[in-house]
Amino acid sequence: MATHRYCDGVRRRDFLKAGVLSGIGLTLADYLRLASAGEVSGSAKAKAAIFINLSGGPTHMDTFDLKPDAPAEYRGEFNPMKTNADGVEICEHLPRLAKCADKFAILRGVSHTLAAHDLGTKYMNTGNRPLPSLIFPGYGAVVGKELGGPADLPPFVAVPNTPQTAGYLGIRYAPFQTNATPAAGRPFTVRGVALRSGLTVSDVERRQDLLKKLDKTFAQNDTDDLVDGLDKFAQQAHEMITSPRARKAFDISQENKELADLFGATPLGQSCLLASRLVEHGVRFVTVSFGGWDTHQNNFPSLKDRQLPPLDQGVSGLLTALDTKGLLESTAVFVTGEFGRTPKINARAGRDHWPRAMFCVLAGGGFKGGQVIGASDDKGMGPAETGITPDDVAASFYHALGIDHTKEYHSNTGRPVMIVRNGNVIDRLFA
């Protein structure tokens, strides 16, 4: 998917740089050498998670929180559509999602105060309001640390990239970024995973033997932690490159055609297909990025023609495929942007930044589908009553994965920090 420049002049790529080392600057051996995993206890239903980041700030008023009775300058051009869940309505341009609304819960009236893309993104991707003195780890880093994963697959994969970073946990928990999106019907290769340009497994094994000899030489002269254990991590890289499971997980062309067709041929749809294969084969956390939601002008044609169709098919395909494979109950799915958009339509037929009211969609992993939790007021200006905070959503997301959001980590300066500093589990999500 293309890199988007936001209205404030900041490119998505600019605040993804903290994660670039894991996807571009590090070799696979580097990545695996820096990666490590923890453990998690408990009987949570979710064993893996998929986070879909709608970067740019999708409008709540024209997707999952329509206001058909509001004045025309607020309600917009779209109409609500009934879903297969009693009393739940969403936008008419999300017909496939309407048919599987029993599989997801909608949070309305989610509210915060950070109207800048970068700050809102950090908040929604960590569950912690950003601080200048501390970089909080994204969901994927925490899940990778707590749940671990198989040796021949990275625990945290980003398709094609992600604003989530390892933060104070350190680069060993950074994401493995594909830096590309799959194309329908074609094997998807990731640098360092697939064997390219005629390279054979035998070639890799010969290089592995040479690397072992070099490791011994370096180990005699250098005790730096980037050299210590290099044999071990290089061996993990070798295992991943030659692992049938890793190659199969990334190869979307092997997917059952009937299931593959559910996703559609768009970059988002194919990325969701890849995400489903990755969790099926043991990856703990996958992020998928889908930008283009910064609709300050031409909001309605942009949504109708460009944004909503791939969202509708990609996410509905993901939920249906996971359910068909028996993976939905063990996979927590989280769909959100960084904020909502202004309820009142501007002079350019667009909507501007509006963090006071937004939506989140949660599915699988023990979340009870077919319900709406929370509400915005009659014009979508803010929560109708007590709002839901990003911290509450984060606490609930971690709860679904069996992770105690009040657990304390320590920064590199020894500062104790809870995984989520504020927030409470939303009990209705699990009722």
Short note summarizing the structure:
This protein is 32% helix and 13% strand.
Total strands: 14
Number of domains: 1
Overall shape: globular
The computed structural class is alpha/beta
CATH class label: Alpha Beta
The helix fraction, in percent, is 25-40%
Estimated share of beta-strand residues? 5-15%
Taken in chain order, the helices and strands follow as: HHEHEEHEHHEEHHHHHEHEEEEEHEE
Return residue spans where pLDDT drops below 50 for at least 5 consecutive residues.
15-27, 35-41, 222-233
Write down the oligomeric state: single chain
Distance between the termini: 37 Å
Q: Radius of gyration in whole Å, from Cα?
A: 22 Å
Q: Can you tell me the CATH architecture?
A: 3-Layer(aba) Sandwich
CATH third-tier fold name:
Alkaline Phosphatase, subunit A
Explain what the structure shows.
Helix 2 (28-34) packs across helix 8 (230-242), helix 10 (257-263) packs antiparallel against helix 12 (299-324) and helix 11 (267-280) runs parallel beside helix 12 (299-324). The protein has a single domain, classed as 3-Layer(aba) Sandwich (Alkaline Phosphatase, subunit A), CATH 3.40.720. The chain has helices spanning 20-25, 28-34, 72-75, 95-98, 117-126, 139-147, 201-219, 230-242, 244-250, 257-263, 267-280, 299-324, 390-400, and strands spanning 48-53, 80-82, 89-91, 104-110, 156-159, 176-177, 285-289, 331-336, 340-341, 353-354, 358-363, 371-373, 408-410, 416-418. It is of the alpha/beta class and 431 residues long. The protein has an eight-stranded mixed β-sheet, with helices on both faces. A two-stranded antiparallel sheet has the order 2-3. Helices cover 32% and strands 13% of the residues. The protein starts with 19 loop residues before the first helix and ends in a 13-residue tail after the last strand.
